[in-house]
TrEMBL record:
Residues in HTH araC/xylS-type domain copies: 196-293
Any one GO molecular-function label of the UniProt entry: sequence-specific DNA binding
Protein's recorded name: HTH araC/xylS-type domain-containing protein
PANTHER family in UniProt: ARAC FAMILY TRANSCRIPTIONAL REGULATOR, HTH-TYPE TRANSCRIPTIONAL ACTIVATOR RHAS-RELATED
The species this protein was found in: Paenibacillus oryzae
Source species, domain of life: Bacteria
């Protein structure tokens, strides 16, 4: 059974590397009790609750959220969130990165220990989200740079609205380096339309339970056709590419002190044992051995 009744994603195929830039956005209707984490991300992730409720946990604090509430996950900060079993939330989300992001969020009162904002005007936020998503979904014939600039503009307005609430209220009180792109900015889409977008989806969604079928549907390809074109262009199937992204990120997380279970959840594996088998295939050693070797070398 799928974890979601509905999930829909739009990806920025050409985000800026240093400026604050939207990576992807989406809408979801998870099933009751659906859990993500405890896990870390290497980008900022805003969720705005539209209906229902759930729980967000980070930095030892637990927040029960309802419609109109928003929670922001920070890069490399362990977080967990769970849909209510009886009235699960539906939400929309925006992921972004960029060197100026941390300072900008701090200046508007949003920090890792104050990452919950309550009382959003949902009609207004939905409108901003639709405009942001619309900028990412404009025809490929236009400038990818312009689409990215427009999306960033709508994000800034969205953050302005959240900042107004954060600064004037204490309701949100207690509750980097992106190495996952693995050549994402180095491959070109001339081989077939949508290649860069497929790569972006795999590179940014490595922590989600992404399937080739979902990516193919989003891009308007048949699953088998997308796999064939992707392999002809990159030398890897989409799932092989996704596994490469996940394993490289897992190496980084293990070296930075995360447990095997936390690392598994962060790179899209529900089962730490299955993750360990996949990691051994990738690196030749178990995750625990990898951690010990790196710790010894660091000394």
């Amino acid at each position: 059974m799928s974890d979601h009744h509905m999930i829909s994603i739009a990806v920025n195929s050409s985000p800026f590397r240093d400026e604050m830039s939207v990576l992807f956005c989406g809408e979801g209707e998870p099933r009751g009790g659906h859990i993500i984490g405890p896990a870390v991300h290497d980008y900022y992730l805003i969720h705005i609750v539209l209906e229902g409720g759930g729980v967000f946990e980070t930095l030892g604090e637990r927040h029960r959220l309802k419609a109109g509430d928003c929670f922001i996950i920070f890069p490399e900060v362990l977080a967990r969130y769970e849909a209510d079993k009886q009235q699960p939330w539906t939400y929309m989300w925006v992921a972004f990165s960029g060197g100026a992001s941390a300072d900008m969020l701090s200046r508007i009162g949003i920090t890792p220990d104050a990452g919950v904002v309550r009382g959003c005007e949902l009609a207004e936020m939905k409108d901003l989200f639709r405009k942001l998503r619309g900028s990412l979904e404009k025809p490929e014939g236009g400038s990818a740079g312009l689409r990215s600039v427009e999306a960033s503009g709508w994000l800034r307005i969205m953050l302005h609205k959240l900042g107004q609430l954060a600064i004037t209220s204490d309701a949100g009180a207690p509750l980097d380096k992106r190495d996952s792109n693995v050549e994402a900015g180095e491959l070109h889409s001339r081989a077939f339309p949508g290649l860069q977008q497929a790569i972006s989806m795999l590179s940014y969604q490595y922590g989600q339970h992404t399937s080739v079928s979902e990516i193919a549907k989003a891009l308007g390809y048949h699953r088998a056709h997308l796999t064939k074109l992707f392999k002809e262009t990159t030398g890897l199937s989409p799932m092989q590419y996704l596994n490469k992204v996940r394993m490289k990120k897992a190496e980084s997380l293990l070296m930075n002190g995360l447990t095997v279970a936390q690392t598994a959840a962060s790179v899209g594996f529900n089962d730490p044992l299955f993750f360990s088998k996949q990691f051994r295939k990738w690196s030749g050693v178990a995750p625990t051995e990898f951690k010990k070797t790196k710790e010894v070398n660091a000394e």
